[in-house]
UniProtKB/TrEMBL annotation:
This is AraC family cel operon transcriptional repressor. PANTHER family: ARAC-FAMILY TRANSCRIPTIONAL REGULATOR, HTH-TYPE TRANSCRIPTIONAL REGULATOR EXSA. The lineage of its organism: Bacteria, Bacillati, Bacillota, Clostridia, Lachnospirales. Transmembrane segments: none annotated. Residues 205-277 form the HTH araC/xylS-type domain. One of its GO terms (molecular function) is sequence-specific DNA binding. Gene3D superfamilies: Homeodomain-like, Jelly Rolls.
């Protein structure tokens, strides 16, 4: 199968950091391609089969996907109402955004996974995000300087809100030290180590931490760490080919049965069933 290669210099005019357009089903690119720039796409309506890195996945209304330069993809079998917003971001601009966010954003995880980062937005989330893409599409046609500023702000927002976060829900009155501790525990070496890392970083007693976690996070320190581990296990199952046992160990569980129990409690599925459901969708299921 021929793979087209698109270069950013063929798509971007001088001074442009990217492009944002709304694309209808008849204009969706059915050619397998990759490119030397980055791309976000947000499905506003309908559905299609997304061929991505030799796999197939149905993308429906609310699908938000981050396409990296190495990804090979195309759309097939779009429904008649399929439309999506396509945001192209130059490599230089993306590098600047990652540099702004700093080393703590763990950008390497987004780049190294076999499959591109994917989020299925709830209706309320989609309704909140659509105006940003609409504003970008309009600004691109009217004022390229303003568009470049909006593009950088939108890129940082998309990365931090949907692809670099682990859905950590903190109350507004959380102590500053606890918020910083929660962020530190998102780092792989810390959630792998578990409670010992929590105690070492916080310099607080286990009894005090338990009281504070229950008050502000409504969970014990152990539950907090396990939630982070399960969230990262789900990402690894969906976007890598690593074995379930390897993922279990990488996120910090030394008891496979306990990992399976917590995973099924969180998702309602076994790790194997979760991987099969999220990573492979038969073309015959396309509308």
């Amino acid at each position: 199968m021929k793979i087209e290669f698109y270069r950013e210099q063929d798509w971007l005019f001088s001074g442009e950091d990217g492009i944002c357009t709304k694309i209808a089903f008849q204009d969706a690119d059915t050619r397998s391609h990759n490119h030397n720039y980055y791309e976000f796409f947000l499905v506003g309506a309908g559905s299609a089969t997304h061929h991505i890195n030799d796999k197939k996945k149905i993308v429906n209304t609310g699908a938000l996907v981050f396409i990296r330069p190495k990804d090979v993809h195309s759309f097939q079998n779009p429904s008649s109402d399929f439309c999506f917003y396509n945001l192209l971001v130059s490599r230089g601009t993306m590098d600047s955004c990652f540099s702004f966010l700093g080393a703590g954003c763990n950008a390497d995880q987004l780049m190294e996974n076999e499959m591109p980062p994917f989020r299925q937005l709830l209706p309320a989330e989609l309704n909140n995000l659509l105006p940003s893409f609409e504003q970008l599409a309009i600004a691109h046609e009217l004022n390229i300087v303003r568009f470049n500023t909006l593009l950088r702000a939108a890129t940082v927002n998309l990365l931090t809100s949907y692809f670099l976060s682990y859905n950590l829900k903190l109350s507004h009155d959380i102590p500053t030290w606890l918020g910083l501790l929660a962020l530190e525990m998102q780092k792989q070496q810390n959630y792998q180590e578990g409670l010992n890392a929590l105690y070492r970083i916080s310099q607080k007693s286990p009894e005090y931490l338990c009281r504070v976690f229950k008050k502000h996070l409504n969970k014990t320190p152990t539950e907090f760490i396990n939630d982070i581990r399960i969230a990262n296990a789900k990402l690894a199952l969906e976007y890598t080919n690593r074995s379930i046992l390897q993922i279990c160990e990488e996120v910090g569980f030394d008891n496979t049965s306990h990992f399976y129990h917590l995973f099924k409690k969180d998702t309602g599925l076994s790790p194997k069933a979760f991987r099969e459901l999220s990573s492979e969708v038969s073309v015959s299921q396309a509308p």
